[in-house]
Amino acid sequence: MNASGSHGIDHLSDLDRAVLNIIQVGFPVAHAPYAEMAKQIGSVTEEEVYRCVLDLIERGIIRRLGAVFDTKKLGFMSALIAMKVPPERIDKVGELVSQYSGVSHNYKREHEYNLWFTLAAPSRQQLMDTLEEIKARTGVSDVLYLPTVRMHKIFVNFEIGPSVPKSTAPSDKSGIEEK
Amino acid sequence: MPLSELEKAIVRELQETIPLDTLHPYEEIARRCGITEEELFQKITEWRRKGIIRRMGAVLKHQKVGKVFNAMSVWRVPDREKAREVAQALMSYKEITHCYERPSYPTWPYNLFGMMHCETFERCEEIAREVSEKTGITEYRLLLSTKEYKKESLRYF
User: Fold this and answer.
1) Looking at CA atoms only, how far is residue A29 from chain B in angstroms?
2) Where are the domains of chain A?
3) Distance between CA atoms of A118 and A135, rounded to whole angstroms?
4) Tens of pLDDT along A66-100?
5) How far is it, in rounded angstroms, from Cα A151 to Cα A146?
6) Was domain A14-67 assigned CATH 1.10.10?
7) Chains A, B: CB pairs < 8 Å
8) Which of A82, A165, B51, B76 lies 20 to 30 Å from A140, alpha-carbon distance?
9) Rounded to whole angstroms, what are the CA distances from A123 to A19, A58, A147, B68?
């Protein structure tokens, strides 16, 4: 996650930007989604949009194209977990934690609590069991269990300018949602 | 909300990247699940209405669109009302992508979390400083992520 400076947005074409600004808000739920996008963009063919999407995936700019589920509404429990790992063991513990399928995000951060990850499970009991197993396997006992008490915002959506006028660009604010 | 086997099969398809070798990806997903494309559209529409599906679309790799620094700002706020105020102040910045209240502990006093993606670390610091000045909350930290061990969408079934 360090800044390398090598990944700018300069290498995106106008079509890339137009496609990204649509596709991160909503990929059409339709028989011919690329044709729908082509219609929205204008003066571009279904085939060109399709090739552009494949290319953005190939280049790693799109990480995934599918449904974004609400973990909680699917019936899953999740929590942020912080661990105080001896610095010399951080990579080993980080990699072990990443092996769990319920862990989706896992970062090393600059703090005494130096490992931060999200853990999800079908029930609270299974979540706690997994956490106990992680503690036992890593020997790390100083762990913070940080479930969400209230959510104020959740919608990651980066506007990719400047080819789209601001007024038509997607909003990234979804307001306050209280849980 | 217990899901049927069919619904789990649909989640299993949609939690991945849609089939890319066709111009009609939903038709292919429906075929794999043993339903019609129309039935799949109905289920997706229902789940979107219920908020089970937040959106259909692309998840981008942030670093590749110029957002490089991932910092977690954490704030010690005294009560719910102040938490709301600080959250509102944080959310006025487009660099703040998520904002949560979480419990505090004797070894961890910070109970409000604002996730930032900024183009420079200085920008992250600037936002935190401005929010602190605006709200009077001075007990905060910025935890920069120095290594990403894993970042992917959750697989449910």
Assistant:
1) 7
2) 14-67, 77-147
3) 15
4) 999 999 899 999 999 999 999 999 999 999 999 99
5) 13
6) yes
7) 261
8) B76
9) 38, 36, 13, 34
pLDDT tens figures, B19-50: 999 999 999 999 999 999 999 999 999 999 99
For the beta carbon of residue A166, count every other beta carbon within 10 angstroms: 8
* ipTM score over 0.90, yes or no: no
Domain boundaries, chain B: 5-50, 62-144
The 8-class DSSP code of residue A45 comes to -
Q: What is the 3-state secondary structure (H, E, C) of A51-115?
A: HHHHHHHHCCCEEEEEEEECCCCCCCEEEEEEECCCHHHHHHHHHHHHCCCCEEEEEEECCCCCE
d(CA B157, CA B143): 32
Can you give the length of chain B in residues? 157
**Residue A138 phi, psi dihedral angles, 5° rounding:** -100, -15
Of residues B54, B60, B147, nearest to A70 (C-beta):
B54
A77-147 CATH: 3.30.70.3460
CATH code of B62-144, in short, is 3.30.70.3460
As beta bridge partners, residue B153 has: none
Structure tokens at A124: 């609270």
